[in-house]
Amino acid sequence: MKNKLILIIVLLAMTACNQNKSDKNGTLSSAETDADVSGKFSDSVPNGPDVNVKITESYARQVARDAYFWAWPMENIYNRRLAFKQSPKVGLMNGVLPFAPLNSLAMLHDYIKPEQRWVACPNQDVVYGAAIAALDETPVVIQVPDFGKRFWVYQVVDLRTDAFAQLGKMYGTKPGFYMLAGPNWKGEVPKGITKVFYSKTGTAFIVPRVFQDDTPSDKNAVQAIINSIDVYALDKFDGKMKQQDWSRLPSLGSPTKDGGSEETKWVFPDTFFDQLPIVLKDAPPLPGEEARYAQVLSVIEAAKKDPALKKAMIDEAHKADKELVDPLLQFRNWGIPLPGNWTTADNCAAFGTDYFTRTAIAKSNILVNAGKETKYFYQDLDSKGSRLNGSKQYTLTFAKGNLPPVDGFWSLTLYDEHHFFYPNVIKRYSVGTKNRDLKYNVDGSLTLYVQHAEPEGDKKANWLPSPADDFCLYFRCYGPKQSVIKNQWTPPSVVKI
């Protein structure tokens, strides 16, 4: 009996072994078969619409409309890159705007002039510079001189207008050399580079800002500092601070159609979808964006084979431009509502996949600093909710001890309906820390006067001239303290007299 049991156990073991061999030689177990079939099925699932499948016009329009909105800021920056690429040398475009070949910098030596139209909502609180880096071609080096006690910050953003480098007084940045590199760069960092910042995109925009008060003495004093600011390709780095005399830059022609009252046009519905694959290659998808990228690229590919579909997408881009993007020029249409009808944004230069805020800021006041660097407050309305208009007179009064809590400076700037300076007889476009002659009230409060006609008496020192028609106000806090960053402090209401 014992021997029979042993024999049965041996036979069962041999059967199991033969079954395993059969499985391995081509007859799979049910679990392995399911796993293999599942794997093959998953591999066959497309990342987006099959370009060989006919799609409806209404579907193509829907994809086009959505893509036009969320990719609008990226094409805006990319077309600025193409414009800078046409710069023959470092200079001033039309004699007023920093303009330089890719991977090099141009600096102003004074406040920006009011006639420029390349960037909406400029300010006359700082001396600006501008450089566009093609990080898909080479890393660039950024020079940081010793600014002493003077407030300064270098804005560094990628193609999405998201900041990726922290350089400024608020960060405690030391003088020296810093480097920007693209997402795929794996070279050796030269000795003498303090820190490397890596971009998520192949394009970067660098905008130095250096505070300057509105006096001849300070305008002279800032020159020696700004002449040590520079940006250049890595192969030009030798460990020595390069010096430039930015006051001697030549005037250059413009590669764009300028001269209008609105911002220079940077996004073009007619060519938007021709450019988009190039732009999306420059800015690989963020986590979660893969399906969005695949969808729009598949529809673009399908439209290449169907002229009617392409025409419909272009038509939808024009509609989206007018119906979705254009209204965002008006500050009252977006932002976080605050007391007194002010609005703000808490994620400036850190938009990620917040497509609405990113496009709203790109349309109304592109190239904003990160929240720790600058806090922005926007205003189209008075305290009662009526549109600001030069036919009325307004005041803003800061109670004693309630000026903006900042480590840097503050300013109130007035813009016309297109978000540019309003030409006026006293050539004043903002008031704030830079103005050394502001008049305080007897009780220690400060009242600013916003109106078209010149006010009487010593109120002129606090006067911000307005046009005769609609305008907006823009409040900046550079180096904001936490109460400003968290919206616990907000600007005073704009009160109609």
From TrEMBL:
Domain DUF1214: 374-482
A Pfam entry, by short name: DUF1254
InterPro entries, alphabetized: DUF1214, DUF1214_C_sf, DUF1254, DUF1254_sf
Biased composition (Polar residues): 22-32
SUPFAM superfamilies for the chain: VPA0735-like (SSF160935)
Residue ranges of domain DUF1254 in the record: 103-232
Residue ranges of the region described as Disordered: 22-41
Stated name of the protein: DUF1254 domain-containing protein
